[in-house]
Amino acid sequence: MNNSDPNIIFNIYILIALAITGGAMVIYAFLNFIQTVKEKKGLREVKIIKTKPIPVQVAKELYGENFEKSETYMNQMLAKAESSEYSRHFPTVSEYLENLTDDKHGEKVISVMDVTMEFHINTYQPSSIKEYFIQLLKNEVIYRKLYALYHVSFNVYKGEVVGIIGTNGSGKSTLVKIVSKALTPTSGTVIVDQDKVALLTLGTGFDYELTAKENVYLNGSIIGYSKEFIDNHYDEIVEFAELEDFMDEKIKNFSSGMISRLAFSIATASDAPEILILDEVLAVGDEFFRKKSLKRIKEMLNSGSTVLLVSHSMRNILDNCTRCIWLDKGKIKMSGEPMEVCKAYGKLQQ
Ligand SMILES: Nc1ncnc2c1ncn2[C@@H]1O[C@H](COP(=O)(O)OP(=O)(O)OP(=O)(O)O)[C@@H](O)[C@H]1O
Predict the structure, then answer these.
(1) Which of 196, 201, 228, 331 could form a disulfide with 279 if both were Cys (CB 3.0 to 4.6 A apart)?
(2) Which range (31-40, 111-120, 264-273, 287-296) has the least confidence?
(3) CA dist., res. 285 & res. 295, Å (int)
(4) DSSP category for residue 90
(5) Within a domain: residue 159?
(6) How far is the C-alpha of 284 from the C-alpha of 281, rounded, in Å?
């Protein structure tokens, strides 16, 4: 061995130490990554509970006499979330809702907790994009806050048909969009099994420059149908809408009744989902089509689905609903027996 040997040995030690440290770091990063993936897969809702525990007064409003039970459950959930075992114990949305089931009402399928939706309305309309950007740069864009929903809380139990009434702009559509997760609220939490929900609403997702046939595919895919599903149900959809001779025409040439017939037919082409949300889909088309569509909706209502039904028609609410919620300027004004709520609402409209 020559004089440089001690140096070589020292360098080898350094290299080995670096290799061990590097290896340990890679393993640590890998384990962390696996943990994050696990958490992301199963723990979406833990984050909601962890970051937004339900305020006591809201919990009381939601669970009434069962508040004690729900609070205990929440605390257990939080304890689990904080313990090292929580990834193995975290419940699915269904399990979570089942655990919140109360003896009086049964299984909870939708839980809306303290939901607020705030929109920003530009109070001065610039005449061009250029003017808008100039305003923006000068920090002169002035917004007005509009609360479409303000601290709204309620539960829906399995098998209920809950009507939602209220004057124009009271927040009904915003609420059902949030429940179906098409919109994210500014604050608050909605717990619902998204895989079981279908929102039927008319007129969204149509392109007036496309033909009726193209719109069946466009609107169908927005609603969540696969191409295969639309292929298989296309004839049925056209037949129900009674538009066989018009499918190659652009819908900008259609009357509003024809468009709503097509929209209704697409929206109701699938079997009734477990949780069905209907936003003003009952008064569609002419008298004949209205009867036909009502019959189809009734079949869906009777199939055991849990339903949220937005309607301006008191008749429809009274005929179909087991409970009614009255929204007024984004707040729940009244909730209860459809007859009582409709009576109170009707009085105010006179
Ligand atoms: N994307 C949006 N941007 C700004 N404001 C909105 C938006 N969507 C809804 N709003 C406002 O929120 C309020 C509630 O609207 P929403 O459509 O939920 O009411 P609604 O009760 O369904 O009304 P209608 O009975 O007329 O359908 C309204 O004042 C509306 O102008």
Answers:
(1) 201
(2) 31-40
(3) 14
(4) P
(5) yes
(6) 6
In the chain, % of residues over pLDDT 70: 72
The structure tokens listed for 214 are 């193209």
Token pair listed for 94:
């269904």
Coil/strand/helix, residue 226: coil
User: Is 234 among the domain residues?
Assistant: yes
What ipTM describes this predicted complex? 0.97
Ligand 1 pocket, mutate which of 121, 149, 170 (most atoms under 8 A from CB): 170
- Number of domains within the chain: 1
Query: Considering the domain boundaries, does residue 73 fall inside one?
Result: no
* CB-neighbour burial class of residue 204 (10 A; exposed 0-12, middle 13-18, buried 19+): middle
Q: Which of 118, 144, 173 to mutate to test the pocket of ligand 1 (most atoms within 8 A of CB)?
A: 173
Q: Is the pLDDT of residue 143 over 80?
A: no
Range of the domain at 122: 115-349
Q: How far apart are alpha carbons 180 and 311 in whole angstroms?
A: 17
Ligand 1 pocket (Cβ < 6 Å) reads 119, 121, 146, 148, 166, 168-174
Buried b (16+ CB within 10 A) or exposed e, 172-203: bbbbbbbbbebbebbebbbbbeeebbbbbbbe
Whole-angstrom Cα distance, residue 196 to residue 274? 5
Q: How would you classify residue 187: left for phi > 0, otherwise alpha for psi between -120 and 50, otherwise beta?
A: beta
Band of residue 250 on the pLDDT scale cut at 50, 70, 90: very high
Contacts of the segment 67-74: beta carbons below 8 A, 24+ positions apart: 69/102, 70/100, 73/99, 73/100, 74/49
99 located within any domain: no
The domain that holds 192 is classified in CATH as 3.40.50.300
The answer to whether residues 225 and 269 touch, using CB atoms and an 8 Å cutoff, is: yes
